[in-house]
Amino acid sequence: EFLDMMQENIEPIESRMAYYRCAIMEVETKFKVLNEQFSLQYDRNPIESIKSRTKSMDSILKKVRRKNIPLNLDAIEEQIKDIAGVRVVCSFPEDIYMLADCLLQQDDVTLIERKDYIKNPKESGYRSLHLIIEIPIFLENEKRPMKVEVQLRTIAMDFWASLEHKLRYKKDIPDDEAEQLAIELQECAQISAALDTRMENIRNRMNSQEFREKANAQKNRSV
Ligand code: 0O2
């Protein structure tokens, strides 16, 4: 049935996927601009990397089935909010919130949904900040609002999530072994959260005004 629907709508599906790719370009550019500005102004690059994707037809189909979404394009676009996904990887947790605030302040960005799995990690141990936003893309004769899921995470969160994702999709591990690995991964999630906090503390101490003043005083005394 899904395949029939797809075959009947090949052209609209292709153009809609192109619109999602355009929306991804818009969001990526916004983050690149922010990174550039922070680099000029504060001599630091809050963004380590950006990875983007449009959802595959296969995983759209899985979600359609799982959520019992009616088989028409409008319903699918309305209810699947992560057809376009942009993942922003930062070094430090504070940069995640700073970038999210900067993005949401922009007057062409509308927040649809915010899930903070950093403050409230998932049971698996998963941590990231998820924002579903709507941004316009400008076509020949039309301004079209598009939904994009933005996932913001640290390098440590990303490292963890990519390994855990592999376990999730591996079908050839016996149940008891998979359970053991899931427990081990939960523990690693806690260790990685603690590492993020410690690394951030180190950075903040290195940048602190007090520290700089002490160093200056020392220099002046030795002159
Ligand atoms: P894929 O293959 O990454 O695209 P919703 O989107 O609201 O209908 P849900 O699950 O409530 O469904 O959304 P949520 O919690 O915001 O998570 C959506 C995405 O976050 C997932 O996409 C994953 O990319 C990521 N994610 C969420 N939980 C976990 C987790 O426990 N481990 C890992 N590794 N990633 C997670 P998809 O579409 O499920 O998969």
Automatic annotation (TrEMBL):
Keywords assigned by UniProt, alphabetized: Kinase, Transferase
N-terminal signal peptide: none
Keyword Cell cycle in record: no
Native organism: Roseburia porci
An annotated Gene Ontology molecular function: kinase activity
Record GO biological process: guanosine tetraphosphate biosynthetic process
Record-given protein name: GTP pyrophosphokinase family protein
Domain RelA/SpoT: 52-175
Residues of the full protein shown: 23 to 245 of 270
Domain of life: Bacteria
Pathway(s) of this molecule: Purine metabolism; ppGpp biosynthesis; ppGpp from GTP: step 1/2
